[in-house]
Amino acid sequence: MADVIGSALKRHEDVRLIRGKGQYTDDIKLPGMLYAGIVRSPHAHARLVKVDVSRALKMPGVVAAFTGADLKDEVGFIPTAWIPPDSDMKMPPHPALAVDMVRYQGDGVAVVIAQTPAQARDGVDAVEVEYESLPAVTNPFAAAQEGAPLVHEDIAGNVAFHWKVGGDVEEIFNRAEVVVRQEFRQQRLVPNAMEPRSAVAQWNPATEELTLWATTQNPHIHRLLMSGILGIPEHKLRVVAIDVGGAFGSKISCYPDEIIVSWAARRLNRPVKWTETRTENFTVTSHGRDHVQEVALAGTKDGHIEAIRVKTYANLGAYLSTAAPGVPTILFGLIVNGAYAIPEASAEVYGMLTHTTPVDAYRGAGRPEATFLVERMVDLYAHAINKDPLEVRNINLIPAEAFPYTNPFGLQYDSGNYQGALAKALEIVDYAAFRREQENLRQQGKYIGIGFSTYVEMCGLGPSEVAGAVGFQGGLWESATVRVHPTGKVTVFTGASPHGQGEETTFAQIVAQELGVPPEDIEVVHGDTSKIAMGWGTYGSRTTVVGGAAIHLADQKVIAKARKIAAHKLEVGEDDVEFEQGIFSVKGLPARAVTFQEAALDAYLAWSLPAGMEPALEGTAFYNPENFTYPFGTHIAIVSVDPDTGDVELMRYVAVDDVGVVINPMLVEGQIHGGLVQGIGQALYEGVEYDTNGQLMTGSFLDYAMPKARFFPKFETAHTTTPSPHNPLGVKGVGETGAIASTPAVVNAVMDALAPFGIQDLPMPLTPRKVWQAIASKGGHMHVHDAI
Amino acid sequence: MFTTPFDYRNAHSVQDVIEWLQEDPDNTKILAGGHSLLPLMKLRLSTVSHLIDIGQIPELQGIVLSDNELRIGAFTRYVQLVRDPSVALAAPLVAEAARVIGDLQVRNRGTIGGSLCHADPAADLPAALLALGAELEIAGPAGKRREDIDSFFLAPFITTLAPGEVLTAIRIPRIAQGARSIYLKRPHLASGYPIIGVAAWVVLRDAQVDSCRIAITGIGSVPFRAFSAEQMLVGQTFTRDVILRAAEQVASDQSFDDDDDGYKANLCRVYVTRALAALGNQG
């Protein structure tokens, strides 16, 4: 059997998913099930004067209706699970249904429960709510200004926390030859998973157990948080994530809706389902990014970066979502030096409350915001000292011999060869030829540009000791059980919770490789707290890195036991047994052999086991990583800008990523493509806008520009392989690299194209109108170029 | 996404529709392809008590080509416009515009009559039909009438259709012999609707403009004809300078909402120029 690790196996899960046979939460139908609809505030900020459900209760099919007042004594506040250390964080109370104030458009004020979804929807319209509208603030910088409307009366200045890391860089800035300053707006994004959120709750009065099926990336974290919120002990609470259709971070959070249906199912003693509409997905499911960043870089005239200083106003929304405070701090501030050997750095973050949808992790979560600013600053610095951006990168990239490299914040980058990835990218793109062509085209009034992103990111969340040190209210190890059945078939239980990434396939590949069992004999089970003792879920590109490593450890336990059984059967010492491709054989005597399947059967029959050995064959392991992993690479974007319209066309996109050992190249390719589309989407198309009253102006696919396949050229991808030295599989994680690296590459390319107009920076997304305005304001190009 | 409750009736004749429309005119809507109406109802932006389905009315179907004109039944779906050989022959501009509407699902459902009556200022077909000088057949309680499409659109989502009236067919004069035509669309990145769509045709005789039409959708509050630019072009040699002047004329004749920066006027200039330049390069 050829190596399974490294082969492009087709996705096992696709057999059901692409045939429409997947089981999503909304597919669940239980006898007697009721349907919930939630009454949501149309105002971003208002006092609740009256919430009257009496008319709704008279509507056909309506069984019950509850308000915040009904829940408040029985349902606890929803906590965040991340408290940045030394930040003096204030956690605003977050009730599942608003009690006297609403704080963002979409904040829930009542729930109507009916016999059909349509009746629930009609019931929602029948609830009478009187609001006293109040001024709102949506921008995180504006929220920090004197006199800004307060989101929570008890939190002065809307500052949920102030967090600062790094050294004192002022002295360097005072004496530096060159200082470059720039403000960046990391615009707010909507994650837009294909499957909207859904929750079904069922109460069993006999056992007093609650089961919640929910669209979640982390069922065990949900169970932990919900047991506290609902007062149901953990062992009486089961959370199940069946097939989940994408998340990108938006299904980490423990949401009010899930709590409301759980409480209502118990109260009514009937199963209750809630499924969000696409409109609700835009308005109440967590958003991503949203920073105002003030950045300064100090360097020498000859291109050596000496320090970087970042001050960020990070928008957290109206309440603190589950992972929200960790995203703009730990996952952002600690890596603002990027892939560069910058001796000194500091990062200061104001976590701001605003009258907007709560913000949480979104693909990359903090690292895109950090990578963007450093990659953009390198280009601005190069421009300031009149050097080529590539040359400045070559001067400052961390050299390969410096690994493990400790960055200014104490992170230890595990391994890397940044120059190797850059060299590979430059094999694909002829840089000198591009610059010649660019010059020629400029003479003809045509504008093309090239942009680099020589990025590094941190993923594989993470060492639990570090999780604790940085304020994450949980561990970040992962569990695995590899259960071999008497026939040698295998069930793998993982505490990770993949929701589209394809680990049912990659995990089977790991087990197939290590146990020598055909992949089709392996089933991967995830996402059910009743089947998996504990786990921390899927986010932060941790699933294969941490969950996969746990499986590897469990495999070793299985092999060790099976080897003893085989040796016993072969009547030789354990050390005389070799194990390769599923066969135990006596060293030097390959004919004397026992298959893995035979050993498994022996383990279960237990007719003749080594003395003292327990029957059965399974291994359980808990892997607590030593460190984060640090994928890296070089991305190159080539764009053309049409000065007549401001249109940006992405002509070429080259991504050279080093994600360590690749288990399934096809899935890695897919992850990179998806990430690129989302990262480039941020650069060019996507962005949430609120009006001055806090109304979401981009609340549907009519207004919010999701990238479409036709917007993109064929991506040119390649890899270098630098295994992670501390991960047993050598893997580094790939789920977020595309989204992290691509945004600045594209913006750098557009700015390079616009250089002749004297334009150095524009806020994202770089929409045609914005680009055209910039060109027009620089007096360039008001006439039409088309030849006839 | 659930609509408010409504009742649904399936009409079998235009007469059914006219009668039923009069029963509760303020709360009744005609259902054609439904791709604009149903989303509005599901979002509860439109609350309709009665829906009249016109999908099974023979009088509203079919495409007939006669010597001088093409008659397209109001219930003709976009996909039929794209595929029909007589449309390709007599009014290729209509097929070209229909081809870039929405996506395949939309084209499989949406109808030409639905698009016109909904009167979304960002619809594609009106530009092509204005450029071709289409005439609309309308039936109502007072009998049948015909209306030139130039006067049909009054304001966004408002037409001259009176309560109880039904659009039954669109009559399009055969495009002039030797005409070159184009529909040039700039789709919105999110919605795919035209930010601007320019429909134009020109007949050149010895490089001079013998006749031409330009109609524009998406960028104004209603789709419009560029009359003065058309007049300016006739008799002129079809050169780059002439095209640029015509485009400038189109842009300066119009005032655009939300256009302090002049971007929309610029797009108008650029797209008219590009459309006309492409016609110059055809043939």
Automatic annotation (TrEMBL), chain A:
Highest taxon of the lineage: Bacteria
Aldehyde oxidase/xanthine dehydrogenase a/b hammerhead domain mapped to chain residues: 19-135
Record flagged with keyword Oxidoreductase: yes
A Pfam family reported for this protein in Swiss-Prot or TrEMBL: MoCoBD_2
Keywords: Molybdenum, Oxidoreductase
PANTHER family: ALDEHYDE OXIDASE 1-RELATED, XANTHINE DEHYDROGENASE
Protein name: Carbon monoxide dehydrogenase
Source species of the chain: Sulfobacillus thermotolerans
Automatic annotation (TrEMBL), chain B:
Origin superkingdom: Bacteria
Positions of the FAD-binding PCMH-type domain: 1-177
Keywords recorded for this protein, A-Z: FAD, Flavoprotein, Oxidoreductase
InterPro entries associated with the record: CO_DH_flav_C (IPR005107), CO_DH_flav_C_dom_sf (IPR036683), Diverse_Substr_Oxidored (IPR051312), FAD-bd_PCMH (IPR016166), FAD-bd_PCMH-like_sf (IPR036318), FAD-bd_PCMH_sub1 (IPR016167), FAD-bd_PCMH_sub2 (IPR016169), Mopterin_DH_FAD-bd (IPR002346)
Gene3D superfamilies: 3.30.465.10, CO dehydrogenase flavoprotein, C-terminal domain, Uridine Diphospho-n-acetylenolpyruvylglucosamine Reductase, domain 2
Keyword Disulfide bond: no
Keyword Oxidoreductase listed: yes
Protein's recorded name: FAD-binding PCMH-type domain-containing protein
Lineage of the organism: Bacteria, Bacillati, Bacillota, Clostridia, Eubacteriales
